[in-house]
Amino acid sequence: MTSSPDPLLPAPPVAGRVLDAQLHLLDRQVLDHDGVPVTTVDDLELSGPAVDVEIEPGTAAPVVTALLTGPVLGTRIFGGRPPSSRLIRIPWKDVAEVGVVLRLGISGESLDAGWVERWVRDKIIARIPGGRHDPR
């Protein structure tokens, strides 16, 4: 008869909402406080243990510190990672709501992350007949 492995201890209680990063955050569209599209979430910046360091029991869980976005299309197609210097950070404190989309509590015009959305809106969509008309 084999002995069963030690049972897992229950997860400690946490303050706030628990999010599954892949399910609730990654690849989600980010809207500013006016509902204007800013970008999509490509990666996350986490606080916590350093890479390649053994995690001691009782160490606090990592916390999301920023949303990262940037030029990742090529790396998704061909593999690899873009240099961290090319990624744009949106501090987690600016996120007001997590739902089907992520809503920011600030204007997207002040963020560097929204330049692609603004460029597509101004250079492509605006040239389509009726493209300057707000559908609301």
Strand-helix topology:
Blueprint: H1 21-25, E1 29-31, E2 37-40, E3 43-46, E4 64-69, H2 73-78, E5 88-91, E6 95-98, E7 102-104, H3 115-123
Tell me the structural class: alpha+beta
Span from first to last CA?
68 Å
Low-pLDDT residue intervals, each spanning 5 or more residues: none
Helix-residue proportion: 10-25%
By DSSP, the count of extended strands is: 7
Could you give a short account of the major beta sheet? 4 strands, mixed
Can you describe this structure in just a few lines?
It is built from 3 helices and 7 strands; from the N terminus they run H-E-E-E-E-H-E-E-E-H. It is an alpha+beta fold.
Write up this protein.
With 136 residues, this protein is an alpha+beta fold. It is built from three helices and seven strands; from the N terminus they run H-E-E-E-E-H-E-E-E-H. The strands form two sheets. A four-stranded mixed beta sheet has the order 2-1-7-6.
